[in-house]
Amino acid sequence: MQQDEGRRDDGPSGHGTTREGPGRGRHRGSRRPPPGPTRPEFWRSPVRGVRFTSVLGVVLLVGVPVLFLTGLLSYAAYNPDLRGNDTTPDRGWLGFYLFAWPTDPHWLYRLTQGVHVTLGIVLIPVLLAKLWSVIPRLFVWPPLRSLSHALERLSLLLLVGGALFVFATGVLNVQLDYVFPGSFYPLHFYGSWVFAAAFVVHVAFRIPVVVRALRGRHWAEGAEERAGLAAPRPAAATVSRRGALGLVGAGSVLLFAVTAGQSLGGSLRRTALLAPHGQDTGPGPNGFQVNKTPAAVGIRAEQLGDGWRLVVRGRGRQEVFTRARLLELPQDEASLPIACVEGWSTVDQRWGGVRLTRLAALVGYEEAGTAPGVFVESVQRRGAFRSASLRDNQVRDPRSLLALRVNGAELSPDHGYPARIIVPAAPGVHNTKWVTRLTFGEV
Ligand code: HEM
Ligand SMILES: Nc1nc2c(c(=O)[nH]1)N[C@H]1C(S)=C(S)[C@@H](COP(=O)(O)O)O[C@H]1N2
Ligand SMILES: [Mo]
């Protein structure tokens, strides 16, 4: 409204004058900025200030590293070194940290990915408030003062661009049901490395500012102005700084309340109003979260009927099973959750079926502890998750099953009938449904 009120001292004759007088000004190149957002007086909110920015910065300082770490863990959980799993080609040395994803504790991926997605959503108000608080700095005049200033601004571009990109791709993937099938992983993965690098640089330079701003209740006179965050001519306050922080916090709490239920599962799932796949999963043993139905991935009912066969290949041997023959093999049980990359997960479900080690033994890996990794293929012919590789440590876990039943009933077609994979601590994507071929020793 009154952005330039009382300060129109830059008429034609005013152009070219500098704030600190001609001599110093020319030396520094700091000419009076043109009217508009490049002028400090343009920004009127009395809420902005180093302290406000610093409090939000500290929240991000804790939250963003946890996001980055759980994101790296999620990537490791995909065992991207194995055939068919890697959706991020040429990751090069960015994969330096990869390790064999364990099967214990069985809720591991439920926890890491639940934290990753929930925290990411909860931090959105904080990120937006942080960006709002520093907007005046993005318009500093002159835009490029020197080579080092140019480099600093480039790092800010990577920081702000990286943050927006990583948060946006994450939210879109969760909410819009894989909007970038296949390409989401590389985009999100490379984006977060760029964001992380810029974040480290940013934090390194701002820590002293944060410490100064937050130490004690007062700080040196003029510090606010020097940082260029506080409005030189603030408008009347409509909310205190504390009140503004409270609003941001309330936004985060609200998002948490309508998101977290999807990772807690059970009856709390109904509180997850932002969950992408609906809250009502129906009654009965198969009444838990379904990701894709057979129809959604182009599987016809007859492909899952009497004509269905399971082919198991191993050391030069091959066995073909009907479902009835699989049910004649010794049956085992395991209580395991489904935990999706989207952050939702189920409580433990009681799965029944044939241990993967037993199937490996039938095709040449009889000795205990010698079962190799397995390449799993589904009846499904199109779509991203029709196959997956499991590592030997996953195959060898006695809880890893080719499941035929769940919670005492036959699997429903939605949950993978006639047979699906279930592995402790594995991401949902690797619990392939409608399995038709297992190839041991070829991953
Ligand atoms: C999501 C990550 C973050 C983004 C996108 C971000 C973005 C920005 C931007 C664009 C600025 C203005 C740059 C300038 O001074 O010209 C800024 C300033 C600032 N940031 Fe961050 N920031 C982030 C995280 C953090 C963290 C974790 C801290 C805490 C250490 C922090 C503390 C500060 C402080 C104190 C300032 C103002 C100080 C000054 O003007 O020198 N930021 N931030
Ligand atoms: N063949 C096939 N298997 C699949 C999928 C798929 O799209 N096709 N989706 C996977 C994903 S992403 C998840 S989270 C789980 C979900 O299992 P549910 O629908 O039984 O809960 O199945 C996995 N198995
Ligand atoms: Mo998933």
Fill in the keyword field for this structure.
single chain, 443 residues, alpha+beta, 5-stranded antiparallel sheet, 10 strands, disordered N terminus, binds protoporphyrin IX containing FE, binds ligand MTE, binds molybdenum atom
Can you put this structure into words, describing what you see?
Helices cover 38% and strands 10% of the residues. The protein has 443 residues and is α+β, with helices and mostly antiparallel strands. The strands form two sheets. Strands 2-1-10-5-6 form a five-stranded mixed beta sheet. Strands 3, 4, 7, 8 and 9 form a five-stranded antiparallel beta sheet that branches. β1 (310-313) and β2 form a beta hairpin. Mean pLDDT is 88; it is low at 1-29. The structure holds protoporphyrin IX containing FE, the ligand Nc1nc2c(c(=O)[nH]1)N[C@H]1C(S)=C(S)[C@@H](COP(=O)(O)O)O[C@H]1N2 and molybdenum atom. Molybdenum atom binds next to loops.
Give the strand content. Answer: 5-15%
Average the pLDDT over all residues and give the rounded result: 88
Q: What is the alpha-carbon Rg in Å?
A: 28 Å
Could you give the order of the helices and strands?
A: HHHHHHHHHEEHEEHEEHEEEE
Structural class: alpha+beta
State the helical fraction. Answer: 25-40%
In spatial order, strands of the major sheet run: 2-1-10-5-6
Give every kind of bound small molecule, once each. protoporphyrin IX containing FE, ligand MTE, molybdenum atom
Tell me the span between the first and last alpha carbons. 65 Å
- Number of separate strands: 10
Number of helices: 12
> Largest sheet, described in full?
5 strands, mixed
Shape: elongated
Q: List the uncertain runs.
A: 1-29
